[in-house]
Amino acid sequence: MLKSLRRMLARGPALPETSALQQWADVRGHGYRRVRDAEGCVIDGKLGTQAWRIEWGASQRDYITGFELRLMAELALPPQLLAMVLNRSLLETMERTVYERFVDDVQTRIDTDTPPEMRWLVMYRQAGAQDLGPLRERYGAVCSISPWLQQWLAGPLNDALAATVDRVAADQPVVLTIGRGRLMLRTAMAQPDAGALAAWFSVFEHGLREARRLGQEWRAASAGGLTTQPSAWSNSELVPTSVP
Length: 244
Prior knowledge:
With 244 residues, the chain is an alpha+beta fold. It has nine helices and eight strands.
């Protein structure tokens, strides 16, 4: 009995059970693996030839407490394109933090320790209610190229995000970004939850499809001189479509 107790203590605390996420991945033919000596797992898959990755593990952002779900893909988009969609509760919290940190303290610049999501709120104009449509009560958005954001949110991605409103608490942090050619969705997930993963994967997949479609259309328009930022979209040195 004493030996068994010693062996249990030597192993350390039990890691969270992620079998629900493994089952979700296995049913769909995706790759799955646990993170060695840590709390988390990784799922790899493809949308056609487009690679993507899902990670569940310790949060990498201060605005998400505990554990988070991350979905990501590298896209052939210009590095100049920066876009972010986030739940309005988090947006308002970030705005207050920016004001308290950089206005009340009379700082003149935002340092590199500030999360990029917070810097983008300061750098770029927020989308109007007409751009957000049914999302306007729950979500906000900013982008370095406003017409691109308007088109990205105009179709299936808007519907996919709207479908989460009734099943996700208004104060649950949710951030969907495009930066340096990477599409990323982050949201809080205290415990592995296959149902929640399926819902957020739908949002991510629609965002991925629409971003790829718009990327192709804007590059074609750039070649014909039909875009407001041709230098960004005609650049041949785009990010490769693979997840490292």
